[in-house]
Amino acid sequence: MGEHYFAARPGAASRRRTVDLVLPDLHLRLETDSGTFSPDRVDAGTRVLLETVPAPPQAGDLLDLGCGYGPIALTLASRSPQASVWGVDVNRRALELAESNATTAGLDNVRFKPADELDPALRFAAIWSNPPIRIGKAALHDLLLAWLPRLSPGGLAHLVVQKHLGSDSLQRWLNGQGFPTERIASRSAYRVLRVTSRTEGHTR
């Protein structure tokens, strides 16, 4: 696949374009670029997630983990205008696009940062993510173990994962790590997993 979209500074030559995210409650026109995740259209998994998850909390800090050029974070910001929404990614090109897309959409309750620059004290009422499965199982597990413990008590994460890329095994693994996880939707070979904040006393 050439250089991966999860490089911090993609070397692919810039080729800007726009994609549309049309949902029942909003329509966003998003600028994308080469070297970012799914630059030619909003990813099908992202769409499944956004069309099936329950409404996000209306207050508190909300996180889009692996935000890319911003479709999930901007949807969170639109649906929860009183919340503080954060999008994190390693891809600096994607983060710049996400900031620009937020400005274009008039959403001022969302901020985008490299993952390692977000305040470590922040705790999240919700995490939504189309996680970067292709970074490999070990790296994915490390990523989730870094962020899921930052759910507030009673907080929920919603993850979308393709069945053939390991959604069922990921669900079993999360349960084994002390994060109660259940499938809440299944469509077009995608699974949406709801993950509850870690059970008390589980320190693995």
TrEMBL record:
Presence of the UniProt keyword Methyltransferase in the record: yes
InterPro entries assigned: RsmC/RlmG, SAM-dependent_MTases_sf, Small_mtfrase_dom
Domain (Methyltransferase small): residue spans on this chain: 28-193
Entry's Gene Ontology molecular function annotations: S-adenosylmethionine-dependent methyltransferase activity
GO biological process, one term: methylation
Top-rank taxon, per record: Bacteria
Protein name: Methyltransferase
Species, as recorded: Actinomadura physcomitrii
